[in-house]
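Table S5 (text form). Sequence records supplied for joint modeling of the two-component complex.
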Amino acid sequence: MNNIFVSALLAMAYSSVLASPYTIRGRVTTADGEALSYAYVRVEGKQYATQADKDGYYTLQLPEGHYELKANLLGYRPMSKYIKAAADSKVDFSLTEDMINLHTVTVTGTRTPKLLENTPVVTQIITAEDIAKTDATNIKDVLLTELPGLEFTLSMNQQVSLNMQGLGGMAILFLVDGERMAGETLDNIDFQRISTDNIERIEIVKGAASALYGSNSVGAVINIITKKAVDPWSLNLNTHFGSKHNGQRHGGALGIKSGKWNSLTNVQTDGTHTYTLNGKDEGDRMTVYGTRQWNFKEKLTYRFNDRMSLTGRAGYYFHERNSSAIANDRARDFSGGLRFLATLADKNQLDISYTFDRYDKSDYYKEIKKDVIDYKNVQNSLRALYTHHLQDNLALTVGGDAMIDYLMTYQFTDDGNRKQYTADAFAQADWALSKNWNIIAGARADYFSETGWKVTPKIAAMYRTGHLNIRGSYSGGFRAPTLKEMYMDFNMASIFNIYGNSNLGAENSHSFALSGEYAKSRYSFTATGYYNIVNNEITTIWDNSLENGNGAMVYRNIEGRDLLGVDVSLIVRYPCGIGGKLSYSYFHEYTRDGTPNMSDTRPHSITARLDYHKTLRDYEIDAALTGRYLSSANYHELQSGRYDTYIKASSPAYSIWKFTLTQRFFQAWRLIMSVDNIFNYRPQKYAYNSPLNGGTSFSLGASVDVEQIFKKK
Amino acid sequence: MFSRISHIAKFTGFIGMVALSLLSVSSCDNIYDDLSEIPSNNDKENCYTNVDATSYTTWVYLNFADGSQTSLPYDNTADIPADWTIALHRYDIKTNSGSAFRTGYTSLDEVKTAAKTGTFPMPDASEFTRDEPSKITIDMSHMMDGYIDYADANINNVIGKWLNVDTSSMPPDYAMDSNVYLVRTKSDNVYAIRFTGYSNPYQSNTKGYISFEYDRIK
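The corresponding structure-token record, covering 931 residues in total, follows.
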């Protein structure tokens, strides 16, 4: 079987050797005519590729035919030329600098593809290259490296909990290719489910976005856009070992692009052993449960023609955690979907999709080897989106979704189940008033079978002059109560009961953002201010009147908070290969009823990256130093044993630095070495918000792109 | 024309493949085990399985001589059975005027054999530790308000080491000791005990259900 596969690959690789009669020559330069040394030139969708020499000159042998020739080099906008190979010919490329990804297409802010520089909605992008530089395993690692003002902490039973500028996991909407994810634990999705191996880019829209995305987009939308196959065939195999806790990651990706078919299959497994951390204080220790994950993803697209395509997705995820001596926590996810995309006349677009996502949790009893399910969340969603260009400068987007949300959980009476139906419709106008002004306005109505209607508006505007973009927006956000919050009936370790509340109303937010961005070839400076008024927040509170005066926890809507955030970011990138990014985030929370600030969100945080990239003949090097600083947080908590006395509490400041060196040989072999926590930071006492890497560690990774070995030069 | 038919065929195949993968998803309940498949061990001799010690206000009195168990409020001393060996309150353990010893063995059978063959000489009575005055938690319901209610009780701190609940870090870290403990009764019988569980699979893995096996070795 293996032999057949290898023979097929070899046959595909060499079949074109037989007839390559024409020589295409040319030079790759900058817009100013300077040579771009070692730029890559390849034939889109074929196995032909080459690298220019030091002076930018390249040659390529091609058989007769029509081709799309593409030149690219990191830091420059890729350029395509359509050529006919019928004689020896000369094709030159002059590439424009795009050091800071302004020409990246984004979809999250408007739900229609727009260049980053043209979208009126403030959007941050993390590219696949950024992710590769961080050597990240899952989305958690990526976000921590790239975004300040964000922290992953531990909540009860060592479950991972997100805090993004004062908002928790339920107020941040995570999407994969625009689709929601089923399943949550203590109000957070399973972040380990989003492995980085098939991520093309991550788009982050801060502030409320319910006018486009409905429930949960109170504080931000984080949309993960997945890759598809680029080459006729591609095969990547990779492995990674850490020096601590037996951290490992192994993966593979197989891409096939043949005729009208495009398939990408990703498999990744990762894990760590259980380990104990020792704080600097005598006797302080903390055990971190070991986990292992398996992630399998398939994305298959069939293109009927240039205008229509159908994409099928399937995914399987498995997670196991050594959470106790008796039983391990397990989680599994089964997902699938179909998406039909059509470009109609006048660039009008139709997008219809169906998604199935099922997230299970179970306990695996080690001694008797039995796996007992106690949680199942199934979401079936149908979506339709249509963008109509009324005029060149006015696009109207209308859409609607329907979803059935099923939840069975041990937290319901007798491990029962509940169902909720939701439906929504929305409309948005995107109007380029002039060369300088772009306005977007929209509204959405959501219906929930359990809680009724919810309407949210938004308006965003962008003014552009020269290299300066100013963006301002108001957007509404809301979060409908979940089935868990409405119907929970759970005894918490015989300590107290937690009850749901079917009278809960939606949590909602009014979010204002103002942003200025100055971007010129090698520099980009962005400053954004956010003000988010959160009302009617859903939380558990202690109610003494329950359980015959013994008291119990119950879900309630409470007053809410006002959140102020400021993000400042500076990106610099020089053609010599040196670049850097410095991001700072400020946060302040205003309480309303005169109570002291109980938010443990850190007011100041910084992420920094200094990197160097160089492309040479058959060799590339990337060195990146990344750092993350979190200021101390001073807040208040209730004094032990007293209802009315607040005492001061604090979390210490810390910074963590990582150095990653990536070398690529012959465009195929990649060797990644990294040192994490270079300055060996360990807290005095490990707490729920301490970094859990336990001192300096090293890692070594290797990756091979097998198709590059077979590329026709 | 032919290419259109082949398109339709491919498309139908594609839909079929996706439908098949979705269908197979609907049958994924089969990968799980039913609770009823889990042997409860209830009829196993010399074994207590999932003893309900979840209540903070209850002592569960166990009599190894007849395998019986009696639950009583912590402050009810009038109805304590005449004969009992140990009693459980959450993870606290007290003996009936007895004492306890922690062996280096991790298998009940090994201890039995070693005791019989003399490989493991029975420790002297002075090496066993008696119960000591201490405090037990009787009300956790105010934990969210920041205080916990305690009551005085005599408990055995040696056998009490069977489960280390480390609350110094959040979340608590549960580490069960796999070593065999010995309990010497007031009438000088010695039982060997090996703990096997602190949570109940039948109750969504709720903690506070205690399982162990035991045998009389003297």
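Note: The first strand of chain B starts at residue 47 and ends at 52.
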